[in-house]
Amino acid sequence: MKLIPKFTKNLDTLKYAIEIIGFDIEKECASRDISIKSRGRLDFRGNSLKKKKFSDNKEACQRFSEILRENNLGGTVSIVWSDARLAEIRANIPFLHDFGMEILTEDWDVWIFGNGWIIEKYHEGELVFFLHPQLPLTHPDSSSNPPSP
Which of 2, 97, 113, 142 could cross-link to 78 by cystine, CB 3.0-4.6 Å? Predict the structure, then answer.
């Protein structure tokens, strides 16, 4: 059984549309024609991407907020941490705005998959925003009420 990210345990799961999901990052990347390099980095192959450097968690959170604000993202997202013991979750965009620091610091690396875009936070000081509008999230949104983590 996977562990629920600590910071999500007492949140309003309905407000943020939070649900625990099964998410295969390798399958999702393959469906988007993205390979996974060594150490889990995604190989975006020079496609439409923006890289932002950071030196600490506070700066990472600021860069993350910039990405969200600059790109006016919507819909739902799937969040995957590098620690395979952590459950993958689906949530809405306000969740990213309200809990960016917690999402980015729950584990060393994190990937956030949206409809036609991905954000990768790499622990050695880099956030990558990859935009590919022709590639929607292949895991459909759930129409049921999300369970409480």
Answer: 113
This prediction has a pTM of: 0.85
Q: Give per-residue burial for 79-89: e unless 16+ CB within 10 Å, then b.
A: bbbbeeebbbb
Confirm whether 66 is domain-assigned: yes
Q: Which two structure tokens, joined as six digits, stand for 69?
A: 């604000």
Range of the domain at 76: 14-37+47-131
The whole-angstrom separation of Cα 125 and Cα 58 is: 11
SS3 126: strand
Inside any domain, residue 73: yes
pLDDT digits (tens, 9 = 90+) for 100-143: 999 999 999 999 999 989 999 999 999 999 987 555 554 444 33
Between CA 19 and CA 128 the distance in angstroms is: 25
Q: Classify residue 139: in a domain, yes or no.
A: no
Structure tokens at 76: 């739902």
The number of folded domains in the chain is: 1
Residue 31 belongs to a domain: yes
Q: What is the pLDDT of residues 23-80, one digit of tens each?
A: 998 899 888 888 888 777 888 775 578 899 999 999 999 999 999 999 989 899 999 9
